[in-house]
Amino acid sequence: MNTIKFLFAILLFSISCLSVSIAQSKHTKPVPIILDTDIGPDYDDVGAVAVLHALADKGEAKPLAIMASNKNKLVAPTINILNTYFGRPDLPIGAPKGAGDPDHGATQQWPELLVSKYPHTIRSTDEVPDAVALYRKILAAQPNKSVTIVTVGFLTNLAKLLDSKPDTYSKLSGRELVAKKVKQLVSMAGKFPSGREYNVFIDSAASAKVFLHWPTPVLYSGFEIGEKIITGKQLVSGNSIQNSPVKDAFAKAMSYGKNDANGRHSWDQTAVLVAVRGAAPYYDIQKGEIILKGGNNEWKNDPNGKQTYLVEKMPVEQVRAEIEALMMHQPVRKE
Ligand SMILES: [Ca+2]
Question: What CATH architecture applies to the domain 32-327?
Answer without folding.
Answer: Alpha-Beta Complex (3.90)
